[in-house]
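Notes from hallway chat w/ T.B., transcribed later so I don't forget. T.B. wanted the structure written out for a chain they're using in a teaching module, and asked if we could keep both sequence and structure tokens in one place. Agreed to drop them here.
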Amino acid sequence: MGKKGKEAARERRERRRREVTLLRALPYEPHQRWWDHLSPRAVAVVTGANRGMGFEAARQLALHGLHVVLTSRDAAKGQEAAARILAEAPGEARVSVEWRQLDVADAASVEAFAAWALETHGGIHVLVNNAGVNFNKGPDNSVDFAELVIETNYYGMKRMTDAMIPLMKPSPYGARIVNVSSRLGRANGRRNRIGDASLRDKLLNDDCLSEQLIDEMIKRFLEQVRQGTWSSNQWPQMYTDYSVSKLAVNAYTRLVSRTLSDRPEGQKIYINCFCPGWVKTDMTGWEGNISAEEGADTGVWLALLPCEQGTHGKFFAERREISF
């Protein structure tokens, strides 16, 4: 892309950013606030929510009137984050937040959390799979932590999704699963795609997409990392381990959407994923170009979409559908 093309792209992004800012300022109409019609209050779980975008997602959902379960690996930080949301909420807001320790990379932790959620709340209505890690910043592209990145970003999301689906409460408005992903995980992205054309085609073909295909891709990547034979010609060129993890998140979102698509009315579960953009958080070394509040917006919007819109198995950015 030449200089003029980059400038035009930057101008389009800024224009859409201004449009979304205006949309965020519009209040939900009473008939759109499906969560207000539930009793007891709708429950939303946000993983990795003690800081950054997860904190913002939890804060915004709480301000909209859902009961938010804010989770984090570090119990003290989670407790502090929940207290901060309550302390900073406007006096007229009906804010309800609690914290819970959760490590999505630990199967026993996820199992214990699911048991607690069932016993305490009888289930949940919204799951925001936000917990994730990335150890590369700026021009870095190390794969030294690839196993931890994959375990947290992909298997952690998968673990939580599988554990929470049976806990999604029946409702005429449907339950929601929102997976935080990235444009870096596009199978056929212009600048950061996987080099294996056959694998790309299979990942994008619903008839070929399977859990086995996704897991075999992950296994092959990690084996090459251990052997030192991985190549940026074969795998995404930027933040390779993070990009592969988000590629898997995107594919799994589409796969699960298929399995959930035939659920009867009253038991619908809508699952989607979104790219928050380059957000100014600790994960990006504070080098992003939008705030955590802006980054969380599309995820919160997806969690609160009126059920008649029925968005399912899609990928979004700036409140617009984008391609996988």
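Follow-up for T.B.: The two ends are 21 Å apart (CA to CA). Might be a good example for the class.
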